[in-house]
Amino acid sequence: MTIVYIFGFVYGLAMLFVLVYSLAQAHLLFHFIRYQKYPPPFRPAELEDLPLVTVQLPIYNERYVVERLIESVVALHYPLDKLQVQILDDSTDATCDLILNKIKEYPEIDIQYLHRSDRRGYKAGALKQGLEKAKGEFVAIFDADFVPDPDFLLNTVPHFANSKVGMVQSRWTHLNQDFSVLTQLQAFALDAHFLVEQIGRNRQEAFMNFNGTGGIWRKECIVDSGDWQADTLTEDLDLSYRAQARGWKFVYRPDIASPAELPPVMSAIKSQQYRWTKGGAECARKHLLEVLKGDYTCKTKFHAFAHLLNSAVFIAVLLASISSIPLWWAMRQGWVEPGVFGFGAIFFAGFVVIALVYLFSFFYSKGNFWKKSVQVFWQLPLFLSVSMGLALHNSLAVAEGLLGKKSPFVRTPKFNLEQQNSHWKTNTYLSLKMPFITVLEGALAVLFMVIVLASLDWGIYLMLPFHLMLALGYGIVFYTSYKSYNL
Fold first, then answer.
1. Can you spell out the DSSP letters for 427-442?
2. Dist. CA 216–CA 458, nearest whole Å
3. Torsional sign, CA 483, 275, 315, 305
4. Catalytic one among 89, 191, 236, 238?
């Protein structure tokens, strides 16, 4: 019985973390709803007041999207005598030639091509080197798969009239959202971040983050905050906390759309998730203690805690799922009364709050209400299931980040897929080597499906929804991973 109590303690602790995290999400949702009632006014720019701006394009082996990126950037509505474009190219393939040939088409644009022979510091290193040669007082950044709004600079630059503003972030939208179920689920998740979370944090002046692209910085702010640093995989989140700790203000503009591509295959999604979750954990290791010890309000500290440790939710879900197995067996044997688990159901309120965050963000965009209702009916539980199915993969990344284990910056392959008939299987950047963790995900899918079937047979229904979602999530993650590694 002692072992049962140990697993019960682990299960309760994991679910308590999810509940605490959900309280922060609920508070962000409250501010998001208030924002809808009282949105801040935005003033358009006057051309004669515009300063010199540098647009940085960090590139590494992007043959499928780099030409589209350059075409969209040179189409920005901005005086040519006040615009510099920096192409920060670390490529080792034909991307270099594509860029050089494309540049020749725009002799009237001040385009500076900087090629590095090594990737020291990865993206952070490229941005830092480019900043040394940037002419602009302000620096906009776009990743290779983005297609910025032509009015992006006109809509963001005016905010810097306030000398305390260090960065303005736009909202990501999605070029290929309807390509597949996987892209729809990613859009579902990202929309919640870029609407509820970013609006909620920015409205109450809590720590928010530059998202690595689709934003514009005051150059002075970057330099004053210690410049780009490569000691984490999320240099954007790292610089964001350093800048705001220095007193710089951030502005979030959800009405400015920065369209980008969503990875269409699970292997690419996993590489992106690994970098985001591990980088977030590295930033928690680097900044959380300083924030908690700093001269900030309790509210600001609480949101920073939830923000920096949001990737640790995957560890909580993994621990809860694994520890639920012996608890389920103990219930079957009659060692623990079902009422004990019924009391623990209060922790599931956290999942309800998290679901509400995604629901509000989903219905934020315009569209037929009934059609969207039908869509969210299957999309929400499927999204939650797949998120649970990624718990093993992402937990390993988070653990490495918290423990300080370093790893190289692995970029997410880009595809240039905007139509459903586009072919992604010929992408030369896809990894075809299936890692062992995929086998473990398949094993967990089988294990939880056996538990589901046994629960139905024995009439044990208390944990059935949880185990069913785990079986479905791990099954989808395994199948889509196996499929992407075995083209």
1. -TT------HHHHHHH
2. 58
3. negative
4. 236
**Choice among 90, 145, 149, 238 that is catalytic:** 90
What is the pLDDT at residue 251? Answer: 95
The residue-averaged pLDDT of 471-480 equals 97
Q: Tens of pLDDT along 232-269? A: 999 999 999 999 999 999 999 999 999 999 999 999 99
Q: Measure CA 32 to chain center.
A: 19
Closest CA to 409 of 63, 58, 160: 58
What is the rounded CA–CA span in Å between residue 212 and residue 238?
10
Please write the tens of the pLDDT for every residue from 401-455: 999 999 888 777 777 765 444 555 666 666 667 889 999 999 999 999 999 999 9
Catalytic residue status for 90: yes
pLDDT digits 0-9 by tens, 119-173? 999 999 999 999 999 999 999 999 999 999 999 999 999 999 999 999 999 999 9
Output the CA angle 28-31-36, nearest 5 degrees: 130
Q: How far apart are the first and last CA of the chain?
A: 48
User: What domains, with CATH codes, occur in the chain?
Assistant: 48-290 (3.90.550.10)
Cβ proximity of 53 and 157 under 8 Å: yes
Cα 249 to chain center, whole Å?
Answer: 21
- Could you give the CA distance from residue 487 to residue 408 in angstroms, rounded to a whole number? 25
Residue 236 appears among annotated catalytic residues: yes
